[in-house]
Specification:
It is a single chain. The chain has one domain: HPr-like (Histidine-containing Protein, Chain: A). Helix content is about 35%, strand content about 25%. It is an alpha+beta fold. The relative contact order is 0.28. It is globular and about 40 Å long. β2 and β3 form a beta hairpin. α2 packs antiparallel against α4.
Length: about 100
């Protein structure tokens, strides 16, 4: 391995699955919380729900997922801070977006 090869950063992709827990599902308020959190990371964030995919920084795309309570979703983070991004976003979903 040359010195230049050791400086090359390998892409990191982290995939995590969870279930939407809050009663109202992914409606506008939790979507904006998700977008706000996803925007703090340099990684590209995608959310998969059944056969649909959304950009994690696009409120309209997330709304089109139609993810209701009990729906399984997969968060895919691709970038240098992917582990932190995926962990933060999954924790937000698992908290039910702090809705009661």
């Amino acid at each position: 391995m040359t010195a230049n090869e050791s400086n090359v950063e390998m892409p990191v992709i982290v995939e995590r699955e969870t279930v939407i827990r809050n009663k109202e599902g992914l409606h506008f308020r939790p979507i904006m919380q998700f977008v706000d959190a996803a925007s703090r990371f340099s990684s590209q964030i995608k959310v998969h729900c059944e056969d649909r995919e959304a950009d994690g920084c696009s409120p309209m795309e997330l709304l089109m997922l139609m993810a209701t309570q009990g729906t399984a979703v997969k968060v895919v983070a691709d970038g240098a801070d992917a582990p932190q991004a995926a962990e933060t976003l999954i924790a937000l979903i698992d908290s039910g977006f702090n809705e009661e």
